[in-house]
């Protein structure tokens, strides 16, 4: 298992205890958040709102608004991945509803 996925699994486990209290987000709603003014991104089923309060994340993810950024993260070095995951940890808004339509 590469280092990124170990880090991701560690970050992912931080959120699991809160999953029961977080809203389930419909995929159609998630996909509507695809502009700089209302940007949402996800890593697998974890959804994050980056909107206008983090220029670094907005610029980094500009081609991925309303999409999964897992493959984007793997393109960065470990330090950058850690920075991105740390920034995202404050922007977690819920989990993608697995039963919602694609």
Overview of the molecule:
The protein is of the alpha+beta class. The protein has one domain: Flavocytochrome B2, Chain A, domain 1. The chain is 41% helix and 15% strand. α1 packs parallel to α5 (78-89). The radius of gyration is 13 Å and the shape is globular.
Order of helices and strands: HEHEEHHHE
Determine the strand fraction and express it as a percent band.
5-15%
Q: Number of helical runs? A: 5
Mean pLDDT: 84
What do we call the CATH topology? Flavocytochrome B2, Chain A, domain 1
Number of β-strand runs:
4
Structural class category: alpha+beta
The tally of structural domains comes to 1
Low-confidence parts lasting 5 or more residues at pLDDT below 50?
none
Shape annotation: globular
State the CATH superfamily name: Cytochrome b5-like heme/steroid binding domain
**CATH class category label:** Alpha Beta
Spatially, the strands of the biggest sheet line up as 1-4-3-2
For the structure shown, list the relevant keywords.
alpha+beta, about 100 residues, 4-stranded mixed sheet, Flavocytochrome B2, Chain A, domain 1
Please sum up the structure shown.
With 102 residues, the protein is α+β, with helices and mostly antiparallel strands. It has helices spanning 3-16, 27-32, 55-60, 70-73, 78-89, and strands at 24-25, 40-43, 46-49, 92-96.
How are the SSEs placed, and which strands pair?
Elements: H1 3-16, E1 24-25, H2 27-32, E2 40-43, E3 46-49, H3 55-60, H4 70-73, H5 78-89, E4 92-96
Parallel strand pairs: 1-4
Antiparallel strand pairs: 2-3, 3-4
């Amino acid at each position: 298992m590469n280092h990124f996925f170990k880090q991701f699994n560690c970050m992912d486990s931080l959120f699991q205890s809160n999953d029961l209290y977080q809203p389930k987000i419909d995929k159609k709603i998630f996909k509507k958040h695809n502009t700089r003014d209302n940007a949402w991104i996800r890593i697998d089923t974890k959804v994050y709102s980056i909107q206008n309060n983090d220029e670094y994340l907005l610029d980094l993810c500009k081609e991925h608004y309303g999409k999964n950024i897992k493959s984007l993260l793997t393109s960065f070095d470990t330090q950058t991945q850690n920075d991105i995951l740390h920034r995202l940890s404050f922007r977690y808004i819920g989990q993608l509803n697995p039963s919602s339509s694609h």
